[in-house]
Amino acid sequence: MDGSAPQSGRTTAPSDAADLLVAPAAILEGLPDAVVAMDRDGRIVFANALAEELFGYSRAEIVGQPVTMLWAVRVRKRYQRNLELYFATQHPLRFTAEAWGLRRDGTEFIGEMSWGIVETERGPLLLAIGRDVSERHARDERVHALAAMGDRALAGAEPAELAREAVELLRSRLPVRGAGVRLGDGRTLAEAGRLRRSPMRLPIGTGDELLVTPARDLTDEEMGIVRAVANTLTVALARLRDEAQMRHDAVHDPLTHLANRILLRDRLEQARARAAREGGETGVLYVDLDGFKAINDTHGHGAGDAVLVEFGARLTSAVRPADTVARVGGDEFVVVCDQIDDAAVRSLATRLQAAIRPPVAVGDRELEVTASVGIALGRDPFALLADADAAAYRAKGAGGGRVEMVRRD
Question: Which CATH architecture has domain 25-132?
């Protein structure tokens, strides 16, 4: 034995640990994001392949160039100040949720970026690492705009206003050339842009439609926004119809759909105001069906209701378009007609009698009904209503099927 120390089984460590590390440029190339490095003067010294793809430049075209060429023009001054601040204060790695970049073709995008100073043999460099999040940002904005529209719909915004908002949302947030909201009766609540002859049609109620002309085929997410807008409009228009129905029901008779006492009073007020403003006289005609109770007793209330509905329609067809026909009792109707004279109101009474005279078909039976009509003519519609009621009572007492007239000076 030579007396030397035994050899250990341990391998010899390399003389330089850095030999085991991948070259920094290779690391930057392997990152899943775009990487741009710049020196203190704001000159680009490195860009990886994803940066080439993101900005649309080859590496040879941007290395050595000012980094400002990659920033949207409107933010360059602010970003330049931030760059100088980073080099001056040796900031650690920072993250910003939004940075505006500029591609070679002049289009802007929103980047989600990490920034930080790294020390190199050439001195400190500012490293920017990020990705284009424009589409994600656009999706978020679409969702927020849609949520705001939904909140406004629930808060009771007018459907026409919501329709305009919906059209603006679709045209500003999606690749849509034109959009419109049309009701089943042909009215347009809102429309903007160009609607082609055969636009995309989404039902938003009974006969109502949301019309959309896309600039291209919409993605599933984009179509989801369109459908969500349609659903919001559907709710808003349903509320509009419900409210309109409630307003109608509040002032109309539920059986004949003629004006009720509330609406009659309003029309009497209007007639009085017009008479005071313009002069002229108002005519009130009180129509009381003769022997109506016998119809109910003999043929049932269903037959009686059918007679009332039919006579309500006949009276409406006999008066002038501006006149009001109201049902004020079980078998009592009132007609209010302002700006009318003696001859015209008598002619109207004759037309009403003629409208009532033909038999009413109820099932397989024909029922004949007459009416007592009281007419009052003058300038105070509310006094005329009482006068016409009294005149109709006298006509009924004289045997029915008659017309009695009162003039109030």
Answer: 2-Layer Sandwich (3.30)
